[in-house]
Amino acid sequence: MTSTIKDVAAHAGFSIATVSRAINAPHTVNPVTLARVREAIDALKFSPSPLGRQLRGERTRLIGVVLPTLANPVFAECLQGIDELASAQGFRLMLMTTQYDAQRERHAIETLRAQRVEGLILTVADADTHPLLDELDADGPLYVLMHNDTKRRPSVSVDNHQAAFDGVRTLITHGHRRILMLAGTLAASDRARQRHAGYAQAMRQAGLTPAPALEIDFNAAELAPSVLAHLTTGPQRPTALFCSNDLLAMVVMRGLRRARMRVPQDMSILGFDGLAVSELLAPPLASIGTPNGEIGRSAWQRLMARIGGEYSGPSLGLALPHTLREGGTIAAIASVAHAGSAQRARSSIAS
Amino acid sequence: MTSTIKDVAAHAGFSIATVSRAINAPHTVNPVTLARVREAIDALKFSPSPLGRQLRGERTRLIGVVLPTLANPVFAECLQGIDELASAQGFRLMLMTTQYDAQRERHAIETLRAQRVEGLILTVADADTHPLLDELDADGPLYVLMHNDTKRRPSVSVDNHQAAFDGVRTLITHGHRRILMLAGTLAASDRARQRHAGYAQAMRQAGLTPAPALEIDFNAAELAPSVLAHLTTGPQRPTALFCSNDLLAMVVMRGLRRARMRVPQDMSILGFDGLAVSELLAPPLASIGTPNGEIGRSAWQRLMARIGGEYSGPSLGLALPHTLREGGTIAAIASVAHAGSAQRARSSIAS
DNA sequence: ATGAAAGCGCTAACAA
DNA sequence: TTGTTAGCGCTTTCAT
């Protein structure tokens, strides 16, 4: 294994060039020679070092993947999709996570670039205004964005605006009028903004007034009391929450339950991501689903197309279809009106 | 960026050797020279190609990670832990997943080895009988196993036997006597066997008869009718289920609910993994927790120790402490006895 | 303190 | 068809 092409050449009694050819262009070498070389390769358990090839300026067969985090299954699922195709096609993946930090995004890209990856698949905080991406556009490597829904750069995503619009429409259709949007770590991201825009449009179109997104630190795993109060008290309290991702929705759901609010009777909840696990909740979380595995695979294919030079210039941003999973966390507004009965039910659950 | 050490040398007016020294051993070069070289480096935005270094036989600063899947957050969390330390220490991670397939395990290891990784962190299906690991011991890169609980090789895990024992003890303490163990894809893995052994020991110690683990394909996302029947009907039906992982537990929980079984009143459930998401269920899943991030970090540290030559021979298998998260899915057996009331409750929920 | 040169494993002209 | 040779970018003797 630690043997080199030289060893094989010596063992087989030919030059290293012949060995190289035997490996890379078998048809150009005499069958008998070929056989001998192969024998030697087997005997020495030789496998050509990618390093030599890579340095030689050949294709490195290395793809860099930059993700915010793996703690969110969304990205783990994307990565899974990428990995499927990558390993099937003999590429190696180099992974870096950024924790949504611009500094780390820069570092990751530079590291990967230094490693001479042939391409990059990335999810960044903000795709439109990212100077790094301009640099990549300028002198490579080629990249495809994932989950960054932008028209200006090659990307695979869903139409976040439309998806949020559809979801909020559904809430409105169920009779909700006081709908609040909750956003997590993504608050500063392009996705969050687009989702909020979709929410706002749906609200306005129904003659309702959109509110700014309420930012939640969902790593805290506990809902802040002030937030909870905001959600649960007062005559203007929302009857439905649109959460910018499922993890957040799950945390909120739990927080509400602890405050003796019933979901969906006292509060409807709509998530975003369509995580497999969130469907296992009781009731299953209603959520706008993004085809994560497919997004990963699709990003891979686009990247390969770009690398192969068959890049279709016109369609920069590819939006895959989103789905609307109607779980059990959306109630028609009628059932919310009866504060009295909700009250009763609540106390019956109490401790 | 695409500039080489040569360009820098030319630009600075020194030889490439001096540039190399300026980078790797600044103190050995004249301060004035150093300044000039650095200037050139900045001007050309030069960063040394890892490829050259790697080929030169230097350290590649590359670590391979081999995991069964990323669809299970357990591994995503481990990877997250690894990545934290790796990027902090300037290492690059090369990732491959195996889908629990021995063939792919082999392929992954060979690929990574060919890439000249300095070390390997892996989770394999069966650590004890794995011929590949013997090869690695012989002349592979150094490795550390993760979540493979074996005494024979360097590994970081929990004591699966003990953990399962503790968990099942708790079920028994709650009065359960007919406890069944359910296993998923891991059925063939060393972990699953150890967990089953722990289950069996706890059962026997309480004078109960352990049953073979019931194998469930939890990728199906639906419980097979035959399985469901097995769990829910007959006088010998179990009152508690010990699931070999949380994902499985979640699927089972949902399946039971659909069959109008209440958790925990009609069936207690104990999971394994302690996933963050499973705690967001209602009720929160009782689960034996493994410190995944910590396992990842710990595996990293052991690997670094081995690579650095400070390997502590004696303690091959490191078992991190597991936790027992007592969620809401375990009921004392008394409440199960009243089949009548359960029946009533069930029908009141019906459709 | 600096430079010249060899070589890591490999591929691709170019020769024979 | 096969061999010779020149690098790819870098580090590292060994000279100077």
UniProtKB/TrEMBL annotation, chains A, B:
Residue ranges of the TM segments: none
Cross-referenced PROSITE patterns: HTH_LACI_2
Keyword S-adenosyl-L-methionine: no
Keyword Hydrolase: no
Taxonomy, superkingdom: Bacteria
Keywords: DNA-binding, Transcription, Transcription regulation
Domain HTH lacI-type, chain residue ranges per copy: 3-57
SUPFAM superfamilies found in the cross-reference section: lambda repressor-like DNA-binding domains (SSF47413), Periplasmic binding protein-like I (SSF53822)
PANTHER family per record: HTH-TYPE TRANSCRIPTIONAL REGULATOR GALS, LACI-RELATED TRANSCRIPTIONAL REPRESSOR
Listed name of the protein: LacI family transcriptional regulator
Upper lineage: Bacteria, Pseudomonadati, Pseudomonadota, Betaproteobacteria, Burkholderiales
